[in-house]
Amino acid sequence: MPELFVVTEHRQGEIRDVTFEMLTKGRELAEKTNTDLRAILLGHDVGDHAKKLADHAEKVLLIDDEKLEDFNSEAYQRVLSNLVTQRKPSLILIGHTAFGVDLAPSLATELNLPLATDCVDLDFEEERLAVIRQVYGGKVNVKARLRRSECYIVTVRPATFEAQEIEPLEGEIIKIESPLLENIENKRFIEYVQPATGDVDITAADILVGIGRGIKDADNIPLIKELADTLGGVLACSRPIVDKEWLPTDRQVGTSGRTVKPKLYIAIGISGAFQHITGMKNSDLIIAINKDPKAPIFRVADYGVVDDLFKVVPVLQNKIHEAKE
């Protein structure tokens, strides 16, 4: 039976969320196309990872090698190229992250396979793969059909699919011998460099109040900060606010900032470029305040207020104070 590969991304002892998101989508595609779902795990001493993945895939293909302890795109490419050549999967899913952007294009080039990057959806249509990608800053979705091929490689945008809580599959863990015979000398892992940590960790906050360019001026930030404090929340922002140096980078939500999943996210004056939405779309409850009724942020918001934020925020602030009295 044909196989569908999901390449596991892990770092510093943790499986990245995008892996479970891809396994959820992979399971859906596997059932639809009568394909076996396989989680591909490369690393060293990652048995615990394999057990977690076995709950989400029928089989986990584990390649354990000291030379794979830290991510090296050339080492991963050699192993995956060998595995793909032997097993001939119909589809390979890789996260559209620094990991995937480094790995997927060179792997596709080596194997001469069609590659679609940064996809927000995908499906098979008449034995060809069709993908959805976004253009014009997320304002337009484009559907593209790839040339007919026995195998496709797709990089999936993080936070596009929601990782589902499923009945554990108790999949089989299959150990495969590593094809690496020598170390990769022209590219070596040196160390992880963590970004500087600020005074607040927005990823740990239950309530976030995010501001965008609609705030107009840095002098208006205290208005929103007061609202965040009243709610017992934390102030966050979109990239334009960081670019203007009105708030530090550790407050930025989005693909070039932090991915957050608070219980409540209030987006104030944020239009909703896909880079920002990717970083907060999985929040439990999203409220958007924007005077542009066509702002993309309203597509992901549970509740929306179309009005001038400088009229809405003071009223909201007063109502919260009244409710607390």
Overview features:
single chain, 325 residues, alpha/beta, Rossmann fold, 7-stranded parallel beta sheet, 5-stranded parallel beta sheet, 9 helices
| Strands ordered across the widest β-sheet | 7-11-6-1-4-5-12
Count of DSSP helices?
9
CATH top level of the largest domain is: Alpha Beta
Q: What about the largest sheet?
A: 7 strands, parallel
Unreliable stretches (pLDDT < 50, length at least 5) are none
Mean pLDDT rating: 92
Number of strands: 17
**Into how many domains do the coordinates divide?**
2
CATH superfamily of the largest domain: HUPs
> Which fold name fills CATH's third level, the topology of the largest domain?
Rossmann fold
Secondary-structure-derived class: alpha/beta
What series of H and E elements makes up the topology?
Answer: EEEHEHEHEHEEEEEEEHEHEHEHEH
Oligomer: single chain
**Which architecture of the largest domain would the CATH scheme give at its second level?**
3-Layer(aba) Sandwich
Distance between the termini: 65 Å
Which geometry do the CA atoms define?
elongated
- How big is the Rg? 22 Å
β-strand percent reads 25-35%
Helix content range:
25-40%
Task: Describe the 3D structure.
The strands form four sheets. A seven-stranded parallel sheet has the order 7-11-6-1-4-5-12, sandwiched between helices. The mean pLDDT is 92. The N and C termini lie far apart (65 Å). The protein is 30% helix and 26% strand. It is an alpha/beta fold and 325 residues long. It has nine helices and 17 strands.
